[in-house]
Structures are given as C-alpha cells and as structure tokens.
Design goal:
heterodimer, A: about 300 residues, mainly alpha, two-stranded antiparallel ribbon, 10 helices, B: about 260 residues, alpha+beta, six-stranded mixed beta sheet, four-stranded antiparallel beta sheet, 7 helices, extended
C-alpha cells in the first residue's frame, strides 16, 4: 500500500516503513540504542530526502525509547539520577552541536563530515567493544565462570570532586564524568542526527563503570529528552518533521522495542555487547566503503543553500 | 481631435487587416483534459492525465507537410544545486557545485513522431520544448570546466527517477484533426501549477500553440498537516512528540497486559 508523505513529498510503501520501524525497534529494545544510526541511512536509501529523514527519525526514536524505557522501569533497570545528570549534559551538548553543525554547513562540507564522524566513531566504538567482549567471554570460560570479573580499577574517574551516590548503578563517583559524557554525546547527536545511544552505552560501561543491565534502560531514558529536544528544533526551524512517516515508523518501532527488551533479558551481557559491536562495525564498514569506492553517480542534487 | 481619431481608426484597421488574413489559414487547438487538477491524497500513487483535442481551421487541410503534435507538461521549476564528487585523499568528496537556475520538478514531452522530425532545432530553441532546453542554467559558473555536464546530470538523475521523460510517437493524430495522448505522472509529485503546452507543427515549424495549466494540490489530511507544519510549527512539533509518547506508552501497556494474562 502506497502512502504519500505530506512533508517529504514522496510516495512510499507503508508496509516497508512498518517493517523497517519494527526491525530497528527490536534492536533499540535489546541494546538501548535509539537505532537512528541504522534507520537514518536506511531512509536515505528508500528515497526520503535527508533533511526529512534526520528530523523524522528523531521523533521516531522518542517513541521507541519511551516504549523501551517503560519496560525497563518496570524491571527497575533505570538509574534515574544518572539519567538526569546525563540529560543535563546532553542538552548543553546538543545546543553546542547545533552551533558546530551550522558552522560546518557554512563551510559547505557538512555531508562529508557527518559521514566521517560516523565512520570514525562507529569504527572505534565497535572495535573496542568487540575486543573487550571477546576477552570477557574468553576469561569467563577459562575461569569456569566462577570468578566474577574484577571491579574496574579506581582511575581518574574516582579522583574527581563533587561526588554523588548513584544507588541503582551502585556507584559513588563525581558528577563531572557523566556530565562530560552527556555533553559529548549531545554534540555528536546533534551533528550526526542520532540519539547517541551507540556511543553512550559504551561510555557508560567503560568510562563510568555502570553495570550493563542498568546501562540500557538509563541510556533510553536519556535519549528521550535529547531526541525530543531535537525534534522540536527541527520542526520549528527547518519544518522537516514528517508526522505521517514518523507514525508509520513508530508503530513498527514501539512494538519492536517491546519484543527487543524481552529478548535482551535472555541474553548474557557479553553476548549483548558483542552483538551490538558487530552491528556497529557492519554499519561503519558500509559507510566507509561508500566514501572509498567510486559512486555510480558522482553528481548529486540538492536544494540551494542547504546541504 | 476628429482628425486624430480618424487616423487612429485607420491605423487600427490597417493593423487588423493582415491579422485577419493570417487568421483565415490558421489552425488552432481546441483542447480537452481528462482532469485539470490533480489531488494529492494520502494514498496518492501517481496519476494519468488524458490530453485530447481537435484542430480548428477555416480553410482546407494544407497539403504540404503532415500535421504533428507536441504536448509538453512542466512542473514548478525551482533552482537546484548540483554537486560533483571527486576523489581526494582516497575518499569521494563533493568538490565542484553548480547552481542550475531552474529545473522543473517534473517534465514530460509527448510527440506524434520522432522528436527531431516534428520539431527543428531552431524552433526547439525558441519555444524551449525538449528536456535539455527546459533546464536553464544561465549563471553556470565559468570557472568550472564542463558546466553542461551538471545540467546533463540533472536530466540523467531525474530521468532515472521517472520525473523527466520524452515519449516519442505517443500522441495519436487522426485525420490531421483529432489528437490525444496520456501523460503519466509519478507518485512523487510536488505541489504547484503544471504548465501544459500543446504545439502543432508542420515540417518542423510550430504553426500554432496552446497553453493551459494542471493544478496539482494536496487535499484533506495531507493539506492539513502540511499547512500546520508551516503555520504552527511549534504546535506541530508538540503534536509529533505527543503522538510518539502516546504510541510508546500504548505499546508498553498493551504488552504488559499480554504478559500478565
């Protein structure tokens, strides 16, 4: 069934959009990522104008994250306090990111920089996670699963002032690292047009030392506010949020997120991490190849003044 | 005063005289359209417009060259930024760009015979009928070699997407008097007034032309959402968020109900 999208001004198959939404929703619920880093390129591929894809995707992530986070709330795997600190940083970062984005736009190479950002961050994050999870699995096997993994060494993160107790995560650390993580993710989210979960999740595990089970819910909790803020920014400045597209994607998305959250319960933390790492690496390789291989059409059409 | 009026009248009569003489041998288009407006609804997936008409003439059919018909439908023509990638430091980067001043979002030409048979190049130049003439890039940057390649790229990309098309031999002409053709419009139409031109040609020369417009508009929900997003963007944004939150909550509630059964 073809549906004409009022803002994107293209006609697309409704079931295709429902399917895409559902698939990304499952991943979102499993890993605590919004799925924007997968969905945005997919939307480009089916012919949605990039500006509309980025803005609408933000709106869809609000829905799937909200659906996902409710399931996590019920299981008490959301660190609300940590989430709020991250959100505070995230909003500052998003505002900063918009400034950076507009500056790059003025330079005329924003497309390339967004893609390079994707390749570099996805590559580094995916690679590190993959190696770390492999090691963790190997260690667990060697030790017969008896010895628990040693607690994170008390590094610079623990030496900072303004300490705060995060009960759900079982942490007593300074608020500065989570704030900084929030700011960095916010900047990247605004530039790359994604929720930032794929960077946030590893940052929470490896920098803040949060337990993996809490990380997913908290990440979803933080993503809601940041993407909600982004949606409003796009809707009021660029008029690029396509509500019909968003509804189709989010119907699939919210259902997928519920299923994904349940699948996540049955997987071990290391398995969850290694799967996420593989997915991140796959997207990175795809985007990297796009930059390296000669495109079949070296010309592209765009709106004057825009990117 | 009287003299002045008289001379004015004579001038007018003189001016009219050759005009009416020319009128006698002139062929004119009487046009019909199956629809003069296209409504974009939520389930819009393209449209086919039947263009039909007759040639009105007061004199017998000229015997020299057969009558040919060209129908050209053109969508709104905003400017388009065309960028070209080049390999720099191993990766493909946008380097050169050219602003094409006006390129119609949709352009279809239907002819009753092969294009270069129905129209000479000079006539094409004058009336801007062929696809390549429909695109205007007056200010194409001189510093870029082969600026034409950019305009060609617009045509190539849009032809691939079915937005531009040259359909030769698709206009049926009966007895040099009746003609008809169907113009197919794709699902990805943009709003606006679609200029529809009909040219009658003989021996490659345009002997008569007629112009009308097909109105393409969003209607119903499509129109409501589009206007709301432009006129009340804040409200529209809040509505989008409310829908997202409601859907997220709804799915979560539904699933917990299912599980608790």
């Amino acid at each position: 069934m073809q549906i004409y999208l009022p803002i994107a001004e293209v006609s697309v198959n409704a079931f295709l959009l429902l399917g895409l939404g559902g698939m990304v929703g499952v991943l979102s619920g499993m890993f605590g990522v919004g799925g924007g880093f997968l969905m945005t390129p997919l939307l480009f591929f089916i012919g949605i104008p990039p500006a509309v894809a980025v803005a609408t995707e933000a709106n869809q992530i609000v829905a799937s994250s909200f659906s996902g986070v409710l399931a996590h709330f019920r299981r008490r795997t959301v660190d609300i306090k940590m989430g709020l600190v991250l959100q505070a940083g995230g909003l500052m970062g998003a505002a900063l990111g918009v400034v950076v984005f507009n500056y790059l736009k003025a330079l005329g190479q924003v497309d390339l920089l967004v893609k390079l950002c994707y390749v570099v961050f996805l590559g580094v994050v995916g690679g590190l996670m993959f190696i770390e999870s492999l090691n963790a699995i190997r260690k667990a096997k060697k030790a017969g699963g008896a010895a628990p993994a040693p607690r994170r060494q008390r590094g610079w993160v623990h030496a900072l002032p303004f300490k705060m107790r995060f009960r759900t995560s079982g942490l007593y650390i300074s608020v500065i690292p989570p704030l900084l993580v929030g700011v960095c993710v916010g900047i990247l989210a605004a530039i790359m047009g994604v929720g930032g979960g794929f960077i946030m999740v590893p940052a929470m595990i490896y920098i803040l030392g949060m337990p993996t089970k809490v990380v997913v819910g908290t990440s979803l909790f933080q993503i809601i506010l940041v993407t909600g803020f982004t949606t409003m920014l796009h809707a009021t400045t660029n008029y690029t949020v396509d509500i019909v597209l968003a509804v189709l994607l989010l119907i699939g998305g919210v259902i997928g997120a519920q299923i994904g959250t349940r699948i996540g319960v049955y997987l071990k933390a290391e398995q969850l991490r290694i799967l996420l790492a593989l997915m991140v690496i796959a997207v990175c390789v795809k985007l990297g190849l796009d930059l390296l291989l000669q495109p079949s059409e070296i010309y592209s059409l765009g709106e004057p003044g825009g990117h | 005063m009287r003299k002045l009026l008289l001379s004015a009248l004579t001038a007018a009569a003189l001016a009219l005289l050759p005009h009416t003489a020319a009128q006698a041998g002139k062929e004119e288009v009487v046009l019909g359209l199956s629809q003069d407006r296209v409504a974009i609804t939520a389930t819009f997936d393209g449209s086919e417009i039947l263009v039909f008409g007759a040639v009105k003439r007061e004199t017998p059919i000229p015997q020299d060259d057969p009558l040919e018909v060209v129908v050209a439908v053109s969508g709104p023509a905003p400017s388009v930024m065309v960028r070209r990638k080049e390999k720099k430091l191993g990766i493909w980067v946008n380097v050169d760009s050219v602003l094409v001043d006006s390129a119609p979002a949709f352009y279809a030409v239907a002819t009753s015979a092969p294009f270069n048979q129905v129209l000479t190049d000079t006539e094409d130049l004058r009336y801007r009928i062929s696809i390549k003439r429909a695109i205007r890039s007056v200010g194409a940057a001189m510093h870029i070699r082969g600026a034409q390649a950019f305009a060609d790229a617009v045509i190539r990309i849009r032809e691939k997407n079915g937005l531009y098309s040259l359909r030769e031999n698709t206009v049926a002409v009966d007895e040099q008097t009746l003609f008809r053709t169907a113009i197919e419009m794709p699902a990805d139409l943009t709003e606006g007034s679609y200029q529809t031109r009909i040219f009658l040609t003989r021996g490659g020369k345009v002997v008569s032309s007629y112009e009308t417009a097909i109105d393409v508009r969003k209607v119903g929900l499509e129109k409501f959402l589009y206007s709301l997003s432009r006129e009340q963007p804040f409200l529209y944004g809040l509505m989008s968020l409310a829908i997202a939150i409601a859907a997220g909550w709804g799915a979560s509630a539904a699933f917990s109900l299912l599980r608790n059964r």
